Amino acid sequence: MGELSDDARQRLAKLTAVEPAGRPIPATPMYAGLLTFVIPLMNLVTRLQIHGSEHIPRNGPVIIAANHLSHLDPILVIHSSRRKLFYLAKDEHFQKAGWRQLMLATGQVETDRTKGGADAIARAADVLAAGMPLGIFPEGTRSRNTSPPYLGRGKTGIARIAASFPDVPVVFCGINGARDILAPGEPFLPKTWKKTNLKYSSPITWNNWVSHKDGGGITDAKVAALEKMTKDDMRDEIGLLYRKFTNQSIATISALGAP
Fold first, then answer.
1. Do 150 and 258 touch, CB atoms closer than 8 A?
2. CA 220 to CA 8: how far, in whole Å?
3. pLDDT digits (tens, 9 = 90+) for 65-99
4. What is the per-residue pLDDT across 224-234, written as a single tens digit (0 to 9) for each?
5. Pairing assessment for the beta strands 195-200 and 108-111 based on DSSP bridges
6. How many CA atoms are closer than 13 Å to the CA of 170, on its beta-carbon side?
7. DSSP state of 192
8. CB–CB of 39/77 below 8 Å?
9. Angle at the Cα of 11 (from 10 to 12), degrees rounded to 5?
10. Peptide bond just before 149 cis, omega within 30 deg
11. Is the pTM of this model over 0.85?
12. What DSSP state is assigned to residue 54?
Protein backbone atom coordinates (compact mmCIF):
# COMPACT_ATOMS: atom_id res chain seq x y z
CA MET A 1 0.00 0.00 0.00
CA GLY A 2 1.14 3.55 -0.67
CA GLU A 3 1.19 6.49 1.66
CA LEU A 4 -2.32 7.89 1.35
CA SER A 5 -4.05 9.13 4.46
CA ASP A 6 -7.78 8.83 5.09
CA ASP A 7 -8.10 12.59 4.67
CA ALA A 8 -6.37 12.46 1.27
CA ARG A 9 -8.61 9.57 0.20
CA GLN A 10 -11.69 11.65 1.02
CA ARG A 11 -10.34 14.66 -0.86
CA LEU A 12 -9.48 12.54 -3.88
CA ALA A 13 -12.96 11.00 -3.80
CA LYS A 14 -14.44 14.50 -4.12
CA LEU A 15 -12.34 15.10 -7.23
CA THR A 16 -13.53 11.87 -8.88
CA ALA A 17 -17.15 11.84 -7.71
CA VAL A 18 -19.90 11.11 -10.23
CA GLU A 19 -23.34 12.58 -9.69
CA PRO A 20 -26.00 9.84 -9.90
CA ALA A 21 -28.77 10.40 -12.43
CA GLY A 22 -31.28 10.23 -9.59
CA ARG A 23 -33.66 7.96 -11.51
CA PRO A 24 -35.06 4.96 -9.61
CA ILE A 25 -33.76 1.44 -10.17
CA PRO A 26 -36.54 -0.62 -11.79
CA ALA A 27 -38.40 -3.11 -9.65
CA THR A 28 -37.58 -6.68 -10.61
CA PRO A 29 -40.28 -8.92 -9.11
CA MET A 30 -39.60 -11.65 -11.69
CA TYR A 31 -35.82 -11.63 -11.30
CA ALA A 32 -35.66 -13.88 -8.24
CA GLY A 33 -38.04 -16.33 -9.87
CA LEU A 34 -35.99 -16.43 -13.04
CA LEU A 35 -32.85 -17.15 -11.02
CA THR A 36 -34.63 -19.89 -9.11
CA PHE A 37 -35.65 -21.72 -12.28
CA VAL A 38 -32.99 -20.72 -14.80
CA ILE A 39 -29.93 -21.57 -12.68
CA PRO A 40 -30.87 -25.25 -12.22
CA LEU A 41 -31.80 -25.43 -15.92
CA MET A 42 -28.46 -23.99 -16.99
CA ASN A 43 -26.69 -26.47 -14.75
CA LEU A 44 -28.43 -29.24 -16.67
CA VAL A 45 -28.03 -28.01 -20.25
CA THR A 46 -24.61 -26.32 -20.23
CA ARG A 47 -21.03 -27.35 -19.61
CA LEU A 48 -20.01 -24.36 -17.52
CA GLN A 49 -16.90 -24.48 -15.39
CA ILE A 50 -16.89 -21.75 -12.75
CA HIS A 51 -13.85 -20.80 -10.70
CA GLY A 52 -13.48 -18.22 -7.93
CA SER A 53 -17.12 -17.25 -7.49
CA GLU A 54 -16.51 -17.37 -3.73
CA HIS A 55 -14.68 -14.05 -4.15
CA ILE A 56 -17.97 -12.28 -4.93
CA PRO A 57 -19.53 -10.63 -1.86
CA ARG A 58 -22.90 -12.16 -1.11
CA ASN A 59 -24.46 -8.87 -0.06
CA GLY A 60 -24.11 -5.19 -0.79
CA PRO A 61 -22.79 -3.29 -3.80
CA VAL A 62 -20.11 -4.82 -6.00
CA ILE A 63 -18.84 -4.21 -9.54
CA ILE A 64 -18.37 -7.36 -11.64
CA ALA A 65 -16.38 -6.64 -14.80
CA ALA A 66 -16.06 -9.22 -17.58
CA ASN A 67 -15.06 -9.50 -21.22
CA HIS A 68 -17.85 -9.51 -23.79
CA LEU A 69 -18.02 -12.16 -26.53
CA SER A 70 -21.68 -13.08 -26.84
CA HIS A 71 -25.26 -12.04 -26.08
CA LEU A 72 -25.15 -14.78 -23.44
CA ASP A 73 -22.44 -13.12 -21.34
CA PRO A 74 -24.76 -11.26 -18.92
CA ILE A 75 -26.72 -14.49 -18.36
CA LEU A 76 -23.53 -16.47 -17.75
CA VAL A 77 -22.20 -13.91 -15.26
CA ILE A 78 -25.52 -13.66 -13.41
CA HIS A 79 -25.75 -17.45 -13.30
CA SER A 80 -22.21 -17.96 -12.03
CA SER A 81 -22.20 -15.06 -9.56
CA ARG A 82 -25.55 -15.99 -7.96
CA ARG A 83 -26.29 -12.27 -7.61
CA LYS A 84 -29.12 -10.17 -9.02
CA LEU A 85 -26.82 -8.07 -11.17
CA PHE A 86 -27.99 -4.86 -12.81
CA TYR A 87 -26.61 -4.16 -16.28
CA LEU A 88 -26.84 -0.96 -18.29
CA ALA A 89 -28.74 -1.22 -21.57
CA LYS A 90 -29.47 1.12 -24.47
CA ASP A 91 -32.90 2.76 -24.34
CA GLU A 92 -33.74 1.39 -27.81
CA HIS A 93 -33.97 -2.12 -26.32
CA PHE A 94 -36.79 -0.91 -24.08
CA GLN A 95 -38.80 0.33 -27.06
CA LYS A 96 -39.17 -3.07 -28.76
CA ALA A 97 -42.37 -5.05 -28.27
CA GLY A 98 -41.90 -7.67 -25.58
CA TRP A 99 -38.31 -6.69 -24.92
CA ARG A 100 -39.15 -3.99 -22.36
CA GLN A 101 -40.74 -6.50 -19.99
CA LEU A 102 -37.82 -8.89 -20.40
CA MET A 103 -35.24 -6.14 -19.85
CA LEU A 104 -36.97 -4.93 -16.69
CA ALA A 105 -37.49 -8.46 -15.39
CA THR A 106 -33.77 -9.19 -15.65
CA GLY A 107 -32.49 -6.04 -14.00
CA GLN A 108 -31.49 -4.08 -17.10
CA VAL A 109 -31.16 -0.35 -16.41
CA GLU A 110 -32.25 1.96 -19.21
CA THR A 111 -29.74 4.59 -20.37
CA ASP A 112 -30.31 7.58 -22.63
CA ARG A 113 -28.09 7.25 -25.72
CA THR A 114 -28.65 10.90 -26.67
CA LYS A 115 -26.71 11.89 -23.54
CA GLY A 116 -23.74 9.68 -24.42
CA GLY A 117 -21.52 7.93 -21.90
CA ALA A 118 -22.27 10.44 -19.16
CA ASP A 119 -25.78 9.08 -18.67
CA ALA A 120 -24.50 5.50 -18.51
CA ILE A 121 -21.99 6.46 -15.81
CA ALA A 122 -24.68 8.32 -13.88
CA ARG A 123 -27.05 5.35 -14.11
CA ALA A 124 -24.29 3.03 -12.89
CA ALA A 125 -23.92 5.39 -9.94
CA ASP A 126 -27.67 5.04 -9.31
CA VAL A 127 -27.23 1.25 -9.02
CA LEU A 128 -24.30 1.37 -6.62
CA ALA A 129 -25.75 4.21 -4.56
CA ALA A 130 -28.81 2.00 -4.03
CA GLY A 131 -26.54 -0.73 -2.64
CA MET A 132 -27.07 -3.01 -5.65
CA PRO A 133 -24.52 -5.10 -7.57
CA LEU A 134 -23.48 -3.76 -10.99
CA GLY A 135 -22.40 -5.83 -14.00
CA ILE A 136 -20.22 -4.08 -16.56
CA PHE A 137 -18.23 -4.89 -19.69
CA PRO A 138 -15.14 -2.62 -19.71
CA GLU A 139 -14.83 -2.97 -23.51
CA GLY A 140 -18.17 -1.18 -23.80
CA THR A 141 -19.60 -3.55 -26.40
CA ARG A 142 -19.26 -7.08 -27.72
CA SER A 143 -16.00 -7.85 -29.44
CA ARG A 144 -16.26 -7.47 -33.21
CA ASN A 145 -13.06 -9.44 -33.83
CA THR A 146 -13.64 -12.57 -35.88
CA SER A 147 -10.50 -14.34 -34.63
CA PRO A 148 -8.41 -14.20 -31.45
CA PRO A 149 -7.47 -12.06 -29.69
CA TYR A 150 -11.06 -11.01 -29.08
CA LEU A 151 -10.39 -8.87 -26.00
CA GLY A 152 -10.44 -5.19 -26.95
CA ARG A 153 -9.17 -1.95 -25.47
CA GLY A 154 -11.22 -0.98 -22.45
CA LYS A 155 -13.15 2.25 -22.06
CA THR A 156 -12.50 4.28 -18.93
CA GLY A 157 -16.09 4.09 -17.67
CA ILE A 158 -15.16 1.28 -15.30
CA ALA A 159 -12.46 3.45 -13.73
CA ARG A 160 -14.76 6.45 -13.37
CA ILE A 161 -17.38 4.30 -11.66
CA ALA A 162 -14.86 2.59 -9.36
CA ALA A 163 -13.30 5.93 -8.43
CA SER A 164 -16.69 7.40 -7.60
CA PHE A 165 -17.37 4.48 -5.24
CA PRO A 166 -13.82 3.92 -3.97
CA ASP A 167 -14.69 1.39 -1.26
CA VAL A 168 -16.95 -0.81 -3.41
CA PRO A 169 -15.17 -4.05 -4.38
CA VAL A 170 -14.45 -4.73 -8.03
CA VAL A 171 -14.30 -8.40 -9.10
CA PHE A 172 -13.04 -9.26 -12.57
CA CYS A 173 -14.25 -12.21 -14.65
CA GLY A 174 -12.62 -13.89 -17.62
CA ILE A 175 -15.10 -15.68 -19.92
CA ASN A 176 -13.73 -18.23 -22.35
CA GLY A 177 -16.04 -20.19 -24.63
CA ALA A 178 -19.20 -18.07 -24.77
CA ARG A 179 -18.56 -17.29 -28.41
CA ASP A 180 -18.57 -21.02 -29.17
CA ILE A 181 -22.04 -21.30 -27.60
CA LEU A 182 -23.47 -18.29 -29.45
CA ALA A 183 -21.32 -16.09 -31.68
CA PRO A 184 -22.38 -12.54 -32.67
CA GLY A 185 -24.70 -12.52 -35.67
CA GLU A 186 -25.73 -16.16 -35.36
CA PRO A 187 -29.37 -17.26 -35.02
CA PHE A 188 -30.39 -17.66 -31.39
CA LEU A 189 -29.68 -21.39 -31.20
CA PRO A 190 -27.14 -21.71 -28.36
CA LYS A 191 -24.76 -24.68 -28.62
CA THR A 192 -25.14 -25.51 -24.96
CA TRP A 193 -22.94 -28.60 -25.18
CA LYS A 194 -19.86 -26.44 -25.78
CA LYS A 195 -17.64 -26.01 -22.72
CA THR A 196 -17.32 -22.51 -21.25
CA ASN A 197 -15.06 -21.33 -18.44
CA LEU A 198 -15.69 -18.38 -16.14
CA LYS A 199 -12.92 -17.42 -13.75
CA TYR A 200 -13.24 -14.70 -11.09
CA SER A 201 -10.50 -12.65 -9.45
CA SER A 202 -10.20 -11.70 -5.82
CA PRO A 203 -11.81 -8.30 -5.14
CA ILE A 204 -10.02 -4.97 -5.19
CA THR A 205 -11.30 -1.47 -4.47
CA TRP A 206 -10.27 1.81 -6.07
CA ASN A 207 -8.84 2.88 -2.72
CA ASN A 208 -6.71 -0.30 -2.65
CA TRP A 209 -5.48 0.35 -6.16
CA VAL A 210 -4.98 4.09 -6.26
CA SER A 211 -2.39 4.19 -3.47
CA HIS A 212 -0.54 0.99 -4.41
CA LYS A 213 2.90 1.45 -5.96
CA ASP A 214 1.93 -0.89 -8.81
CA GLY A 215 -1.45 0.80 -9.23
CA GLY A 216 -2.13 4.52 -9.17
CA GLY A 217 0.83 5.31 -6.93
CA ILE A 218 -1.01 8.30 -5.45
CA THR A 219 0.30 9.91 -2.26
CA ASP A 220 -0.93 12.76 -0.08
CA ALA A 221 1.47 15.08 -1.90
CA LYS A 222 0.04 14.09 -5.29
CA VAL A 223 -3.52 14.70 -4.08
CA ALA A 224 -2.48 18.15 -2.88
CA ALA A 225 -0.86 18.82 -6.26
CA LEU A 226 -4.05 17.80 -8.07
CA GLU A 227 -6.09 20.22 -5.97
CA LYS A 228 -3.86 23.10 -7.08
CA MET A 229 -4.15 22.38 -10.80
CA THR A 230 -6.41 24.14 -13.24
CA LYS A 231 -9.62 22.31 -14.06
CA ASP A 232 -8.30 21.17 -17.45
CA ASP A 233 -4.95 19.97 -16.09
CA MET A 234 -6.67 18.14 -13.25
CA ARG A 235 -9.01 16.43 -15.70
CA ASP A 236 -6.04 15.31 -17.79
CA GLU A 237 -4.13 13.94 -14.79
CA ILE A 238 -7.13 12.09 -13.41
CA GLY A 239 -7.78 10.83 -16.94
CA LEU A 240 -4.33 9.21 -16.90
CA LEU A 241 -5.28 7.44 -13.67
CA TYR A 242 -8.51 6.23 -15.26
CA ARG A 243 -6.65 4.92 -18.29
CA LYS A 244 -4.10 3.07 -16.15
CA PHE A 245 -6.83 1.43 -14.05
CA THR A 246 -8.71 0.46 -17.21
CA ASN A 247 -5.62 -1.00 -18.88
CA GLN A 248 -4.82 -3.04 -15.78
CA SER A 249 -8.46 -4.17 -15.61
CA ILE A 250 -8.26 -5.49 -19.17
CA ALA A 251 -4.91 -7.16 -18.39
CA THR A 252 -6.47 -8.86 -15.36
CA ILE A 253 -9.43 -10.11 -17.40
CA SER A 254 -6.98 -11.46 -19.97
CA ALA A 255 -4.99 -13.24 -17.25
CA LEU A 256 -8.26 -14.84 -16.09
CA GLY A 257 -8.57 -16.57 -19.44
CA ALA A 258 -10.41 -14.14 -21.73
CA PRO A 259 -9.34 -15.05 -25.27
1. yes
2. 6
3. 999 999 889 889 988 998 889 988 776 667 776 67
4. 999 999 999 99
5. unpaired
6. 29
7. T
8. no
9. 90
10. yes
11. yes
12. G
